[in-house]
Amino acid sequence: MIRRFKIFLAVILLIFVVYNVYNFFNIVINKKVFKSPKVPKEFDGFRIIQISDFHNKKFHRRDFFIKSVITQRPDVVFLTGDFVDSRNPDFKYALNVIKELVPVTKIYYVLGNHEGRLKGIDKFLDDCTELGVVVLRQQSEIIRRGDSLINIVGVDDTSITTIWTIRDVLKEKLINGHLNILLSHRPEIFDEYVNTGYDLIFTGHTHGGQIRLPFLGALFVPEQGVLPTYDKGAFTKKDSMMIVSSGIGTSVVPIRIFNKPELVLVELKYEK
User: Fold this and answer.
1) Whole-prediction pTM value?
2) Can you tell me the distance from the alpha carbon of 116 to that of 137, in angstroms, rounded to the nearest whole number?
3) Strands 217-218 and 212-213, how do they pair?
4) Helix and strand numbers, DSSP H then E, in the chain
5) pLDDT tens digits, 4-34
6) How many Cβ atoms are within 10 Å of 52's Cβ, its own excluded?
7) Cα–Cα distance between 141 and 143 in angstroms, integer?
8) Beta-strand pair 225-226/220-221
9) Mean pLDDT, residues 142-164
10) 216: nearest Cα among 204, 229, 203
């Protein structure tokens, strides 16, 4: 009886390990729809792919990640920080990934806490800019279709700049009466984004906790602690929606449990 029980536990453990190893080297596409009267009719159906916390992740096939992005037919790609891992930086690999994406889509990039402590990051960002990537550091960019526009604002991570600077930038770059999209690494300051009036916010940083439990979600996230509020998914407050991506890679501990690497696909929809 005891022997059978040990065999049963061993089989369960093996299934658990195989399942999570398989998930670690795969990608889930989490699809969201953002509906608002602020979405110009010309931008109805506009497709956004968010890539967060890439951390130099390498998959089983070199082209697997690129194909996963391209097949979603994005109009733009948002990189919301920690694209390069500060503990094991590989600028060449990160730049090669970007090189394969820029011919097919426009890329906007904001910095996370890992970029903030990386030596050589300025050269890497210059290389990205030369390739056509729009690096937004307390800056904004307008995307136009016909007579309509949407406003994209990007800020550095709070480990790089101050919360007071971020507050000033959010107010200064907001365009009243239009759709305002914010790219920021940190989700825990959601109220700052809401109170300034941003409509759609893309964040990351949490990795979805890396370890998640069914029905409970993330066990722990830095800056938010145990059982965090903003761990992964879409959160709404007033007229604002914040997307928190659990990201692609890992940090500190190279595991993801019940938490596949994810790409977030957001489609804009005009709604009266």
Assistant:
1) 0.94
2) 12
3) antiparallel
4) 7, 16
5) 655 645 555 555 455 455 556 789 999 999 9
6) 31
7) 7
8) antiparallel
9) 97
10) 229
